[in-house]
């Protein structure tokens, strides 16, 4: 019931937020362009969800390793396809003709299934750094690296957090997690700063915290953040009402 409620509310919110953009994209023909696309994916997702409800989840153990390695192949294939086609955009979506998939979402699901399988299989050895803890860390690093080169740093960070959380809950030593996490942060900080737009966003955020945001460049960098604050200022906690948003009028 909760999942269905969230889907219904989310669909209504999506239509409310995207109707103006849909009219703009279609030259005023329809305001449901994004709604229809969302509903197709929602129906497919609901079908898959109900199939999983009636499936014995323990059977996922059989395919867990294949899901993991298949995800790495999909991530690399997505990046390679963008390179071959000369597309200068983040390689996050794989076009399969009839539909597109975000390969990092498949990787996240695969990692969760694989770690659950691994923790169950190696629960007695998980506290051993080399024999129990390092193998999933190496595999997780491979997944995160293929996501970072897309580039999709934020998704990689979220998946990394999920992985470490599962290992901790599964019984891994906290000291191992802290040390490995510290090494990961040391490695990821320079990787994060390699992209100029990330650095600019950090500078803008620091400037806004200390009241030093001024100038055209700063306004351009922080445009989305500024519009988000304007939206919150206009609507408050409850918003302006269904369909009455101002920011949906192509400000964001």
Description:
Helix content is 72%, strand content 2%. It is mostly helical and 252 residues long. It has three domains: 1-55, no CATH class; 58-194; 195-252, no CATH class. A two-stranded antiparallel sheet has the order 1-2. The model has no long low-confidence stretch (mean pLDDT 82). Its EC number is 2.4.99.28.
DSSP summary, beta strand count: 2
Largest sheet: 2 strands, antiparallel
Distance between the termini: 32 Å
Number of helices: 10
GO molecular function, one term: lipid-linked peptidoglycan transporter activity
GO cellular component, one term: plasma membrane
Membrane topology: Multi-pass membrane protein
Subcellular location: Membrane
Task: Record keyword descriptors for this entry.
252 residues; mainly alpha; two-stranded antiparallel ribbon; 10 helices; 2 strands; globular; FtsW/RodA
